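User: Hey, quick favor. My workstation is busy. Could you predict this chain's structure for me?
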Amino acid sequence: YITLSPLFFLLLSLYLLLLIRPGNGVFGRGGAQRGLFILSGFLSGWAFYGYFIYIFFVPAFIVIVVHLSRRLGHSTSQVTLYWLTGFLLGTFLYFIGYGMLWSELGGFSEILKSASGLRIEGDSIEFYDRPYLLFQHAVASIAGNYQYGVIFNQAAPVAYGVVKSMTMLLVILVAVPVAVVRRQFDASLGYMLLLIASYLFILLGLASRIAPHHTIPLLPLLYIFMGISLYRAGFGLLRGVAGIPRKIAGAAFTL
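Assistant: No problem, here it is.
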């Protein structure tokens, strides 16, 4: 629950950005809908407060905000500032916490001494070894082998992880190209890819300091990406089915 519960707020943050359309803004005229940008940033900051790894998604959100601001014809710097303001507001409990530490321990140097007792530094490895190490961690959580071991205290059956991983890979390799060919690859899919890429890129730099549980947020993100891909692919494939509404057909294909 520590690694996954903040994902709810992160996804809600993304959903608010997807709601933004041209028109009058929340706070008067202008069309930038500042309120949604600020609230989106706040929820993303709240996710970061929930667990530190969620700050790894911030670069993707910055790209998404910039893309939206240009599409809507608004000032990129201004809209980005709205989102970052919300993000800082969402992390305000961090500032309160460090303020309490400052007061309790007697200064910044004492905070650093206290933090030095935590094992936050991992074994030093060469950069070219990090992709493989990250791959091992990601596969362990995505295939479910890590979770299986934690719950049952024994190794998962080999077929368990292989079947699951291969099924997920097959779905993505089939659904995404179909969605692209059918011109159904929209912002929701692109934004999900950005979130996954941003997270993996930063984890790559920290590969020697992470464990499989740090890669678990990738699992629901991949599930969502698969679901949207199937829906978009089915949206095109089943468009011409007589007597079946398009939304029902897409939902049925996804299931």
